[in-house]
Amino acid sequence: xxxxxxxxxxxxxxxxxxxxxxxxxxxxxxxxxxxxxxxxxxxxxxxxxxxxxxxxxxxxxxxxxxxxxxxxxxxxxxxxxxxxxxxxxxxxxxxxxxxxxxxxxxxxxxxxxxxxxxxxxxxxxxxxxxxxxxxxxxxxxxxxxxxxxxxxxxxxxxxxxxxxxxxxxxxxxxxxxxxxxxxxxxxxxxxxxxxxxxxxxxxxxxxxxxxxxxxxxxxxxxxxxxxxxxx
Length: 231
Fold this sequence. Notes:
Blueprint: H1 10-25, H2 35-49, H3 59-82, H4 87-102, H5 108-122, H6 127-140, H7 145-157, H8 165-177, H9 181-194, H10 199-209
């Protein structure tokens, strides 16, 4: 994952974020940021708060991140208000608010969810919005896992029989959080089969295999892993 290179790197993050903000802002306020500048800041925020738990190790760092988040959120609010039919701008705000959810900021989860649905109501095949909402749901609570499963399958169907890694990985967690360990085990083995260079997927095989009722890994009658068919 992109954030792994910065894990534990609080000083590095603060330096990089400061460089990015200064480079794209100069002396201008956050409200003057162009969309490409916002993209740069979103990438830096993603390295620290694009996952849960976020890589925050001090109140000072938290204050800096929240200040940056709040400023970018206000700018995106303005852009969405000016161009409400611009799915790209709405997606940026959804992505930012998903990060805010990782910080437990009030209203962030509902705001992100609403933005993703705004896009999907207009364009049900918008892949980034499908995956964004699915990832948010699957990471939020097991209660959202069934919905996330449906979204990951929808994203995969957009690619027909060509495996979409982000969707296939998401399905593993959707199954696992629903307690469907046999399906999670098959999914983990499929991930290893398709992307053998990713060591993390081997760990998922062990995790799901410990709870699965299917034959143990390497057994003669172990079924071959298969991709969930697109219906």
